[in-house]
Specification:
The complex is a heterodimer of chains A (about 60) and B (about 575). Chain A has about 60 residues and is mainly α. Chain A is built from three helices and no strands. In chain A, helix 2 runs antiparallel to helix 3. With about 575 residues, chain B is α+β, with helices and mostly antiparallel strands. Chain B has three domains: about 130 residues, P-loop containing nucleotide triphosphate hydrolases (Rossmann fold, 3-Layer(aba) Sandwich); about 120 residues, no CATH class; about 240 residues, no CATH class. Chain B contains 18 helices and eight strands. In chain B, the strands form two sheets. A six-stranded antiparallel beta sheet of chain B has the order 2-1-3-4-5-6, covered by helices on one side. In chain B, strands 7-8 form a two-stranded antiparallel ribbon. In chain B, helix 12 packs antiparallel against helix 13 and helix 12 packs across helix 16. Classes of the chains: A mainly alpha (about 60), B alpha+beta (about 575). At the A-B interface, helix 1, helix 2 and helix 3 of A face helix 3, helix 6, helix 7 and helix 18 of B.
Chain lengths: ~60, ~575
């Protein structure tokens, strides 16, 4: 009989699948940031961080 | 995993124990309204998930509407509702049982052994719920076209995926909303360069190369260097090109207008530094300074005590050698008189020590006044340096007006107002600075006078407060006018470039000086454009998943029911 185990949420599972579909590392960063209580905000924050890095010549 | 049978007791529409055996392929339950068809689905759903979709949906609106609704109202109060399902899982057969006690206490068991969670819980949570509420179908059919996709995704258990798609779409269609200030500033800085390139046919090769994006940058800068070489002496080395162009431009522009139009805002660091210094200046003349001065005033009166001690010390040395003779008049003295002299000498010694301490405090006070003077001077310089430079433009105000008006009359007006405000405020600040400096000097001098005036401390504190108030007012005027003057400065620069015939040179200077900015802006533009690709990838992924889910839902074996126990199975009729 199989035992209950911790499994990723469906959202995490979809994101994991999507990450396999994209190749651009910056797109991967955006999708990887998608999570938490406010996933869109988290992704927007990541976009902001990427742009800030680009403008400060870090990315 | 297959459902073989379901036994229900005291749950929803079922009072007596009923067992339903399911067919291997498909079972259709048919009955008039209120015969318990929905209760069968709900019993299985509750068994598996501990809650039904109907109650879950209702709880999001009202926590009490469906309270106690699982229990059949006719079930004796001494008994608990329960549901038992027989499941075939590979070669194994499981009998899973859930019993409801109280409001929502569920006791689960598998093959008679109590468990805290179903052994197949992981598989349950990873898959969409295989239950569709009647009203969900109705919602789907009545939804607006724009919402139908979302509802349909929800029905297929792809609600989370649809949400991801919506969020990615939102991000990718309006990335500008996430631009940090640095990107906005970058666009502003390069806007003038882009306008210049557009307006100059001679620079079309540069413009075309940059139009290709980051890959065109090397070619664009090859053309920039070709254009630069035309404007500097032959043989100028790479490193000297930019300084040569700057000098060329500066010399030409100075022929037209002598002054710099500049009133920079205080940087955050400068503003913080000024605020800290102002606090320190004000604190240096607080109440303790007056107390210190009052103490030091005693120093003078104690100077007499010191001289008296020196006198008594000298006499005491003689008295030690001739204890019975007065060291001053040579007459014989009594023991009582001798003790009196000793006592007087001891008291004078104590006073002298105290006087020495006060002297140390006076030196410390003098040093702190010196530091205050330096601090005040430095504060004044930082506060007014840029103002003095800006005010020099006043002597060329008429020429400035001629250059900027009428096309840039608004900008000229802004400069004129700034000049007027600062000129009006400057004398007051100079006066209060000078007055504070005089008060420091007066206090310093008074430390050597017979009786330092403690009131000077109060006057100094008032002078410093006055100066800081004037300096803050000046700070406010500079901060309010700096952006307008900066705008006028940019306009003036362009006009002077045109008047001096230096527009091309100025553009080349900008391109050379801002190559990193140019590359950065192009890279940002390309990245933002690439977000459309990300959106397409997500759309395609969601679309594929939806199709797969539809195919999964509508595939399988169906059979025609033509009477009890007679099954005529036919495979794949509905398969996509």
């Amino acid at each position: 009989m199989d035992q209950p185990v911790d499994v990723p949420s469906r959202r995490e599972a979809f994101i994991a699948e999507l990450l396999g579909e994209v190749t651009d590392p910056l797109h991967k960063r955006l999708l990887s940031a998608y999570g938490g209580a406010e996933p869109l905000h988290a992704m927007e924050d990541e976009l902001r961080a990427i742009l800030t890095e680009m403008v400060s010549h870090e990315a | 995993m297959k459902l073989e049978s379901l036994a229900i007791r005291g749950f929803r529409g079922f009072n007596e124990l009923r067992t339903i055996e399911f067919h291997d392929a498909i079972t259709v339950v048919s009955a008039p309204n209120s015969y318990g068809k929905t209760s069968i689905t709900e019993a299985l759903e509750w068994l598996l998930y501990g809650v039904t979709s109907k109650v879950e949906a209702a709880q999001s609106v009202s926590a009490t509407e469906y309270k106690g609704s699982y229990r059949n109202t006719h079930l004796p109060s001494t008994e608990n509702p329960y549901v038992i399902a027989a499941l075939a899982d590979g070669g194994k057969r499981l009998e899973v049982r859930a019993e409801l006690s109280g409001e929502d206490q569920v006791t689960r068991s598998v093959n008679g052994v109590e468990v805290s969670a179903w052994p197949f819980a992981a598989r349950l949570s990873a898959a969409p719920k295989p239950f569709v509420l009647q009203h969900a179908l109705k919602d789907l059919l009545l939804a607006k076209p724009g919402d139908r996709f979302e509802r349909f995704a929800g029905l297929l258990g792809l609600g989370e995926l649809e949400q991801i798609q919506r969020d990615v779409t939102s991000l990718c269609t309006k990335p500008e909303a996430c631009y940090p200030q640095e990107i906005t500033d970058l666009h502003l800085r390069l806007g003038i360069v882009e306008q210049g390139l557009q307006a100059k046919p001679a620079f079309s090769a540069i413009r075309k190369a940059l139009h290709k994006g980051t890959t065109g940058v090397p070619l664009a800068y090859k053309h920039v260097h070709i254009e630069c070489a035309k404007r500097v002496p032959v043989g100028t080395d790479e490193a000297s090109i930019l300084p040569q162009l700057l000098k060329l431009r500066e010399d030409a522009v100075r022929e037209v207008f002598q002054h710099d139009l500049s009133l920079p805002s205080y940087t955050p660091d400068e503003a913080a530094h000024l605020a800290r210094e102002e606090q320190a200046i004000l604190e240096s003349a607080n109440g303790s300074l007056a107390d210190e001065l009052a103490d030091i005033a005693q120093l003078v009166t104690q100077a007499t005590a010191l001289r008296r001690l020196e006198f008594l010390d000298a006499g005491w040395e003689v008295l030690v050698e001739s204890p019975g003779t007065c060291p001053f008049c040579g007459q014989a003295i009594s023991d009582e008189t001798r003790s009196l002299i000793e006592l007087t000498r001891s008291a004078a010694s104590t006073e002298a020590k105290r006087s020495q301490g006060l002297r140390g405090r006076r030196d410390a006070l003098r040093a702190s006044l010196s530091r205050l003077r330096q601090r005040l001077q430095a504060h004044y310089v930082v506060s007014t340096e840029r103002v003095h430079l800006f005010l020099k433009v006043q002597s060329s105000a008429a020429q400035l007006k001629e250059i900027l008006s009428p096309k840039y009359a608004v900008q000229y007006e802004a400069v004129s107002n700034a000049l007027q405000d600062l000129e009006q405020e400057m004398p007051a600040l100079e006066q209060s600075f000078s007055s504070a400096g005089c008060q420091i000097a007066a206090l310093d001098r008074s430390l050597d006078t017979p009786e330092p005036d403690a009131g000077l401390a109060t006057t100094l504190a008032e002078s410093l407060a006055h100066y800081i108030a004037d300096a803050r007012k000046m700070f406010g005027i500079v901060t309010a006018n700096a952006p307008h003057v900066a705008e006028a400065g940019q306009v003036l620069r362009r006009e002077l470039d045109a008047l001096a015939g230096m527009e091309d040179v100025s553009l080349l200077i900008e391109l050379l000086d801002r190559r990193q900015d140019v590359e950065c802006k192009l890279a940002v533009g390309e990245f933002v454009a690439s977000l459309k690709e990300l959106r397409k990838t997500v759309d395609q992924f969601v679309s594929n998943r939806m199709l797969r889910a539809v195919a999964d839902e509508l595939s399988g074996s169906v059979f025609h029911y033509s009477g009890p126990r007679k099954l005529d199975t036919k495979s794949g009729d509905l398969k996509q």
